[in-house]
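Let's practice the habit of predicting before peeking. Look at the sequence and jot down your guess about where helices and strands might fall. Then scroll down.
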Amino acid sequence: MNWVGYALLSALFAGLTALLAKIGVAQVPSNLATLIRTVVVVALASALAGARGEFSVVGSLAGRDWAALIGSGLATGASWLFYFAALKNGPISGVAPIDKLSFLIAMTLGFVVLNEPVRPLTLVGAGLITVGVLLTLPSVQESLLGLFS
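Done guessing? Here is the structure:
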């Protein structure tokens, strides 16, 4: 499977994650819900890495690899903690679209830090994502409906 297939599966499971997290966090403190989710992810990733014999690579990781992966883990943990707190207090229809603004942040960081190219149509798409996120927010919808009343 190529990267597009993996990305589509990621989107599918991210959508399912939002639904199941919203249901799961309803009667559970958001930090505990994040911990339970994290334990499941650790178990699943450990089983997959073990089954594929990937633990043998650990000894050859460079300091930069460790630093980047640890930083990524800390960022993921913070993202999950805030995501579950947002789901605990808000609707999926508001939380999930705002969370997708991570695309804009990732794209900008890829351009600034990694010198990845950004094509003009990518910028148009990023603008459309921003507009789409804004249009999903109840406060924006109410404001726009007020203009037409």
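How did you do? The chain has two domains: 1-90, 100-149.
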